């Protein structure tokens, strides 16, 4: 009986998949449909399975026409232009173009695996044309993939952490897995690493960021500690990316240290001013439409004193964005607001009066790059600049919220890991956050993490199944027919 298992070392699997999120499950389903026997080991307990996929809402895929759930076409070239813009050109163009081309097919494939989509929710970064939203969110999407994988005969072990890898000459031999208080050695003909980044490993974050990483909040799972990534790099897999590059957004400073998820993100930067602990502005809040720029704010706040900032706006903007889990700090006067935030009242008053004086007349329109801007102010506010004057006044304290890290392993177009000497690994593949740095050198566009996981997961599973050349059994064909 497939499904949740105790590890049985007498059972020989074709493919071992490390990780339990979107990338791992797409790989497992793809490999199983390709005729391979598969064991998925997930370090988290069953309830917390799925890494950061639990917190997602949508994925970004190219498509040539509107659908029941997408408001219009999103062509491959536009997707690539968006990727180039957010990464500043720091992407492997060949892999990125392949991923975008393959993403067109993913929308149909993922539905075939039991996942359902819905039209975009109001106020979600205006993504109704480009991004497909999961009905019931990321956890529902995960549950559908697990149901399909288990019905196809994929075995899954929870609370199963990989603590050692035996790799010889670029070839995977076995993994040591800690499970139920014991250590097991699991041999397999191929390995697929889909175990996420190292964002929950504060010590590792500090290697790149220094002490300021202590003030970071981790939006995602506490289980992504980068253990497998470190082992792979230590054993000769080529590293890609910069240890300080990551998907980092400004999130509510009152969020928990881990697992705050999407409900702690704040989408109101463009409607207000953002000041640091010295009550001074430090960046153009209206630089670009929010889906294309929201992921720069975590890094910007990280560079401020004590890694804290405050988004300040007035009553006119309160209903223009998706509310966060926590209510904003409210005050009837700006001096009272300064007091509640612990900011120096005179400086805040001066910052806001300078801002108000610089605002030019224009037609406010939150849906487009409007003509409401400041003049003679540094830094400027390029769009959506409105005087902050209508009481009551509101503020959100924000800190950098790290979603996932980009330092990872290099892969080729078959999702095979590339060794430090440039040769492709024999039987080792990677998908998802652990190789996201191939596509994301820096920056982020909403929903692209799920695209990377699904596309490269499916490829890794397919290629690993070909690699192990497992003859397809009649029972598998029956299962495939039931789920086609």
Automatic annotation (TrEMBL):
Keyword match Heme: no
Domain FAD-dependent oxidoreductase 2 FAD-binding, chain residue ranges per copy: 14-441
Cofactor: FAD
Annotated Pfam families: FAD_binding_2 (PF00890)
Alphabetized InterPro entries for the sequence: CobZ, FAD-dep_OxRdtase_2_FAD-bd, FAD-oxidoreductase_2, FAD/NAD-bd_sf, Succ_DH/fumarate_Rdtase_cat_sf
Keywords: FAD, Flavoprotein, Oxidoreductase
SUPFAM superfamilies, sorted: FAD/NAD(P)-binding domain, Succinate dehydrogenase/fumarate reductase flavoprotein, catalytic domain
Keyword check for Flavoprotein: yes
UniProt-recorded name of the protein: Tricarballylate dehydrogenase
Lineage per the UniProt record: Bacteria, Pseudomonadati, Pseudomonadota, Alphaproteobacteria, Hyphomicrobiales
